[in-house]
Amino acid sequence: MKTKFIIKKDLINIIYKRLNKLAKKKDIKKSIDILIESIVLEFLNKNSISIKNFGTFSPYLFKGHNSYNVNNGEFLHINSFISIKFRPNYIFKKILESKRNFFKKT
Prior knowledge:
Layout: H1 8-18, H2 25-44, E1 49-51, E2 55-62, E3 65-68, E4 75-78, E5 81-88, H3 90-103
């Protein structure tokens, strides 16, 4: 099954329809932009973000280490970097588990 990506424009349209067109798309876009900016700023401050009934996003530091290129055997150094880990909330996991059979092809 091919993964479908929803871009910000799609998300704006989904919210616009769910709100029965009561909000302007421009305002919805601004709200999403503020939300994303706030999340990024929290990650830059090394804070985790927990969203009730959804999950927790946490910054994770991958430490620098020495490695080698498997193609040519050349040694190299991998610098430290920060990535984001997501841990789904128990309720969110249960929702996904209950829908899992729905998405299986027969």
